[in-house]
TrEMBL record:
Pfam families: N6_Mtase, YtxK_like
InterPro entries: DNA_methylase_A-5, DNA_Protect_Modify, S-AdoMet-dep_Ade-MeTrfase_prd, SAM-dependent_MTases_sf, YtxK-like_N
One of the GO biological process terms: methylation
A GO molecular function held by the record: N-methyltransferase activity
CDD domains for the chain: AdoMet_MTases
Name this polypeptide is given: Site-specific DNA-methyltransferase (Adenine-specific)
Annotated TM spans: none
Keywords carried by this UniProt record: Methyltransferase, Transferase
Start and end residues of each DNA methylase adenine-specific domain: 96-319
Annotated YtxK-like N-terminal helical domain residues: 7-85
Length: 332
């Protein structure tokens, strides 16, 4: 059951969002951005009538943000965002489930411990509402993280912006197509729940090795290439990928590209119960950008995440990855 603090914040965000929807003629997600900005600024920034203003003020006064943890704020914001996403017109923009964010955070911690890093730069080239990056920032709060996010959808980017503000998390956000040239220096870590589909802008697709000779290129292929381009040598990439990524006539080209530019570290099959149907099932794919003089792992880490009904599902994977690291370190 959700903690009362999370429930109370959800209630305040939801109720004030509904009021601003009606009075300002906004969509739910647009109104959520407005109410979150009000909470952050400590005042009602919109022109609303006196009745609506009093209702909103009373709701705001019922919570104290400084008494909530960043994770409690994130969870409440996630729930209210999920409510708004039901009617959103971009079906391919689905929020990354919490369990995946927690799994990536745990795996990332193990890789960082093995690499003896305490500070790192992080990029999500398809940040959406920012929930995945926010989960990592909260789970790895003992690390100094310089985070960057890119999102073409301005409403989703505003949600990421106000969420980061409410949680007092630092992140630089860019409102653009991530497959256009990015003015972001290479980072230590890339995380992304890859957008899947065809990329319509041939003028930019033509600049990629993974472009297709005929028809439109796969956006998920181009995101992998762009991500590797913006990763430091030796940096890590965590991708949530469709099960069918390595199927089809274009798959050999992707294999060859990855073989040239990266070492595959691991592939974790996510439980089917996480997804609406088997066609939508996904895996977690871990890469390391090649660095001169380094050899690939003797054995790629392969695992199947137990069902989410198993409370120890994430810990089971982390126990296996620690054993994998021990074996790999012995093989060096």
């Amino acid at each position: 059951m959700l903690g009362s603090k999370v429930e109370n914040l959800f209630h305040v965000l939801d109720e004030t969002t509904e009021i601003l929807m009606q009075t300002c003629h906004l969509t739910y997600l647009e109104a959520l951005v407005e109410t979150a900005e009000n909470l952050f600024q400590g005042e009602i920034l919109q022109q609303v009538d006196d009745v609506a203003k009093k209702k909103i003020e009373k709701l705001y006064q019922s919570i104290k943000l400084d008494m909530l943890s960043s994770e409690e704020i994130r969870r409440a914001f996630q729930l209210v965002t999920l409510k708004g996403m039901r009617d959103y017109v971009q079906p391919h923009h689905q929020m990354t489930p919490d369990s995946i964010g927690i799994l990536i955070s745990g795996l990332l911690r193990e890789f960082l411990i093995n690499g003896k890093l305490k500070t790192f730069t992080l990029l999500d080239p398809a940040i959406g509402t920012g929930n995945l990056v926010a989960t990592i920032q909260n789970q790895l709060s003992d690390y100094a993280i310089e985070a960057y996010g890119v999102e073409v959808d301005d409403v989703l980017l505003k949600l990421a912006y106000v969420q980061a503000n409410l949680q007092a998390q630092s992140i630089q956000l860019y409102n653009q197509d991530a497959l256009e040239p990015l003015f972001i220096d290479p980072v230590d870590i890339v995380v992304s729940d890859l957008p899947v589909g065809y990329y319509p802008r041939k003028e930019f697709a033509s600049q990629y090795e993974l472009n297709r000779e005929e028809g439109h290129a796969f956006s998920h292929y181009l995101f992998i290439e762009q991500s590797l381009k913006h990763t430091k040598p030796g940096g890590l990439l965590f991708f949530v990928i469709p099960n069918h990524l390595f199927e089809g006539e274009d798959a050999p080209k992707l294999h060859a590209f990855l073989k040239e530019h990266a070492f595959i570290q691991g592939l974790i099959q996510l439980p089917l119960s996480m997804f609406k149907n088997e066609r939508n099932a996904k895996n977690l794919f871990i890469l390391k950008k090649k660095i001169e003089g380094e050899t690939p792992p003797k054995k790629v880490f392969m695992a199947q995440m137990p069902k989410l009904t198993n409370k120890n599902s994430v810990q089971d994977i982390l126990t296996q990855i620690r054993a994998w690291f021990r074996q790999e370190n012995r093989n060096k």
